């Protein structure tokens, strides 16, 4: 587990953009099982999260269609929340960072770490915008 003070700046990047923090399993259940679209971002301390995932996610929010709810949990810190979110993301294996889009409680789009590593923020944003156009 990472000390909360170490991840605070990384966590803050998404919170400042309007993301609700998922701190426990109950908050994940409530978010994922709500009506409409919910973006769940599993944040991470890794370089690909800083270099492309978080910038790509925030860039995607400048689109004409976006999810109704924006949420995030931090791998290595919010253990219960991340474990619960990963159950909803099955059959995809655990991945940090990761981005999942849910609609009416159903997983409709998933971006795993191997789709983030080596990709630019622009590429991730475009991937998300296409899913927003389809599901939001």
Primary descriptors:
single chain, Glutaredoxin, 5-stranded mixed β-sheet, 136 residues, alpha/beta, globular
Structure notes:
The chain has 136 residues and is an alpha/beta fold. It has one domain: Glutaredoxin. It has helices spanning 4-15, 25-32, 47-60, 79-88, 113-116, 121-135; strands spanning 20-21, 37-43, 69-74, 98-103, 106-111. Strands 1-3-2-4-5 form a five-stranded mixed beta sheet, with helices on both faces. A hairpin with a 2-residue loop joins strand 4 and strand 5 (106-111). The longest helix is centred in the last third of the chain and has 15 residues, at 121-135. It is globular. The protein starts with a helix and ends with a helix.
Number of strands: 5
Order of helix and strand elements from N to C terminus:
HEHEHEHEEHH
Separate helix tally: 6
Structural class: alpha/beta
Brief overview, please?
The chain is built from 6 helices and 5 strands. Helices cover 46% and strands 20% of the residues. The radius of gyration is 13 Å and the shape is globular.
Tell me the layout of helices and strands.
Layout: H1 4-15, E1 20-21, H2 25-32, E2 37-43, H3 47-60, E3 69-74, H4 79-88, E4 98-103, E5 106-111, H5 113-116, H6 121-135
Parallel strand pairs: 1-3, 2-3
Antiparallel strand pairs: 2-4, 4-5
Helix pairs in contact: 2-4, 3-6
């Amino acid at each position: 587990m990472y000390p909360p003070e170490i991840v605070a700046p990384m966590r803050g990047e998404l919170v400042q953009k309007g993301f609700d923090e998922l701190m426990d399993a109950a908050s994940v259940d409530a978010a994922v099982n709500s009506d409409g679209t919910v973006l769940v971002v599993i944040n991470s301390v890794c370089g690909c999260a800083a270099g492309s995932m978080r910038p790509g996610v925030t860039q995607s929010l400048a689109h004409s269609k976006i999810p109704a709810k924006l949420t995030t949990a931090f791998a290595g810190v919010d253990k219960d929340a991340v474990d619960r979110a990963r159950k909803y993301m099955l059959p995809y294996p655990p991945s940090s960072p990761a981005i999942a889009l849910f609609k009416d409680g159903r997983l409709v789009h998933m971006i795993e770490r191997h789709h983030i590593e080596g990709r630019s923020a622009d590429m991730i944003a475009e991937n998300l915008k296409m899913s927003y156009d389809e599901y939001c």
